[in-house]
User: What shape does this take?
Amino acid sequence: MKQLFLYAALTLAGAGCGMPSFLVTPVENPSALNQVQVRPGQGLFAPKIAIVEVEGTLINERSVGMFSSSDNPLSLFTQELDAAAADPSVKAVVLRVNSPGGSVGTSDTMYDEVIKFRQQTGKPVIASAQEIDASGAYYVSCAADKIVAHPAGIMGSIGVIFEDFDVVGTLNILGIKPETIKSAELKDIGSPFKHMTDKERGVLQGLVDSYFERFKGIVSANRPIKDPAAMALVSDGRVFTGQEAVKLHLADQVGRLDDAIALAKQMANAPGASVVMYARPYGPSGSIYAELSQPQPRAGVTTLALPESAETLPGGFYYLWMP
Assistant: This one.
């Protein structure tokens, strides 16, 4: 009797008359990039302008959520540039920049990747600043042939920051005394569990000064800012509007993303070029401002999206605008 009942239940379920069933379909997330056309060109075999994103905090690690993790910004950036370099139909690259900057090492590496791309391919690169092109993001923009600044955007914040905090007073209130066993005097430099000494502050300030000189050297080598007074003005940490940035030679012209694309077509002698971006499979598309980093749901697949937790940056030195 039990077997008969089980058979009947399975039969009804299969016919759609029984208990609801759920199909869990795994969706692969390969490392390969798909090329997505976001604006058509002219002709059957039109050349291409590739948009490569420089967005969010530039850091060499992935942000991990409960069910998924985002791309490593440096890894994705390098992969997209490699794809544009390997495709002979891609005639120029537009960097779509919307970032407050990031770590010193990641910013410097992304800058080098753009320089290498230009040297090895001869393809022009245009940096298109959006709302924010600050600090490490501007460092990367300096590697481009031209910089187009959004008239209402923010640009600048040339400088270095190292942030530390001291929780010794709080620990004392709680009756907690940290103990550290170290191999040398400066091994725990920057630890929040002790007061910073003058010697430690001097060492850290020396590193900040060194990175700052490197940043100013990058700006001086790529932008027509040779007057020491002008360099002092643009590198005191402040930010400027796009129009001010052009007047100070931080950017070449005021314009929006369309203007940067038009300039890329002009410099590449490809007036009828289409515009493409790179995306993981199942990424959305449809316009040059499409966000391509989040997967789109497909028919028959239920997607659960949870908000990301607030980003906590690892300790270190940053080319980062932190208003």
Q: What stands out?
A: The chain has a mean pLDDT of 83. The beta strands are 34-39, 48-58, 90-103, 125-134, 146-149, 154-156, 239-241, 253-254, 274-279, 318-320. Residues 29-158+227-292+313-320 form a domain with the 2-enoyl-CoA Hydratase; Chain A, domain 1 fold (CATH 3.90.226.10).
